[in-house]
Amino acid sequence: MEAVESQNKNKGMILPFEPHSITFNDVKYSVDMPQEMKDQGVVEDRLLLLKGVSGAFRPASCSHSSNGCEWCRKNYSYGRASRTENRRVYIEGDLKVSGYPKKQETFARISGYCEQKDIHSPHMFVDEVMGLVELNPLKDALFGLPGVNGLSTEQRKRLTIAVELVANPSIIFMDEPTSGLDARAAAVVMRTVRNTVDTGRTVVCTIHQPSIDIFEAFDELFLMKRGGQELYVGPIGRNSCELIEYFEVKGCSKCTL
């Protein structure tokens, strides 16, 4: 705990927090089959998005998930159906937080979720986490309207992270934090992600088709293929060495990233 508090002090964080890990085993996640797919002749009632995936996300580690993380964040009850966005979702499996079964009422207090779309009030200010997300030069700026005035797209991304950090979560999920950004802006946002990881928090990101620089900014990878089946769960390694070695051992020809 002392080490975490020291990290927080170095990074300018004010409130202490307790690090937490997430483990999940044989998780299945499905939704009602979209009507447009039924119109194309699909006869199944449900669309399976995750097919028995297992893994873990650890404190002070940045994990990249290839197939979304909202199933772990939203208010679902395992083994039961829940309705969201006019579509029923179904989740089965075992999910634990630091070894204890996940309870949504407590999980919501220790976790944050950065949506892909950055929706904020045009008059919002952020104070307590300015240093962490490197927004001090803009401390008196208005959020403004996208493409009209105020913050740039990259600055809005960092503000999205800051808004979640104000609640002082132990675990934070980020949905496509670099989407819509050029290479320079994406690098700035990823630096903010790394600063967040360095406070000792558990950070889980979904990033589709990342550049090699962004890919290797992560510590661990949760890679899935179509149908919600996991392909690789584990560390990436320096210059992706551990990931490459895994696939070469599995019989792939010489791998390069």
From TrEMBL:
Domain ABC transporter: 22-251
Record PANTHER family: AAA+ ATPASE DOMAIN, PLANT PDR ABC TRANSPORTER ASSOCIATED, ABC TRANSPORTER, G1 (PTHR48040:SF65), PLEIOTROPIC DRUG RESISTANCE PROTEIN 1-LIKE ISOFORM X1 (PTHR48040)
GO terms assigned for molecular function: ATP binding; ATP hydrolysis activity
Annotated organism of origin: Artemisia annua (Sweet wormwood)
Biological classification of the source: Eukaryota, Viridiplantae, Streptophyta, Embryophyta, Tracheophyta
Database matches in Gene3D superfamilies: P-loop containing nucleotide triphosphate hydrolases
Domain of life of the source: Eukaryota
Listed name of the protein: Pleiotropic drug resistance protein PDR/CDR
